[in-house]
Amino acid sequence: MNDEEELYYYHPLENIEDVDIFYDAVERKKLTKAISEERPYTYWTIELYDQTNGIRGGGGLGVLAADTRRIAEQMEVPFTLLTIFYPSEYTQFMKDGEIVDEKHKVDYHDFGFRLIDTVNIRCNDCLCPLEVIEKKFKHTRILAVTEPNIGELYADMSGSDHRLYQEVALGFGGYAALKLAGLKPAIIQLNEVATFFAALARLDELVSNGMDFYEAVVYTRKHTLYTNHTLVQAAEAEFSIEQFERYVMPNLKSLAVKKWLRNSFEHGKIKLSTVTIEIAELRSGVSKFHARVANYHDLAGNKVKFKAITNGIDLSTWTLPSILEFYQNSGEFSPDLVLSEDFRQKLEFLTSDDIRDFKIEGREVLNGILKDYPDQYGNILQFQPDDFIFDFKRRFVDYKRPDLPFRDVERLKAILKKRDAHYILTGRVHLGDTRMYGLLKYLLKTIDNDAFLKSHVHYLPNYDEKLAYGLSCGSNVAINLPIVGLEACGTSWMKDVANLNLLISTHDGGVADGSINAYLNVSGSDEAAEVEALYQRIEEAISIWDNDFDLEDSVRRQLTTFLPVISGTRMLSDYIDYLFSK
Ligand SMILES: *Cc1c(COP(=O)(O)O)cnc(C)c1O
Question: CATH code for 315-566?
Answer without folding.
Answer: 3.40.50.2000
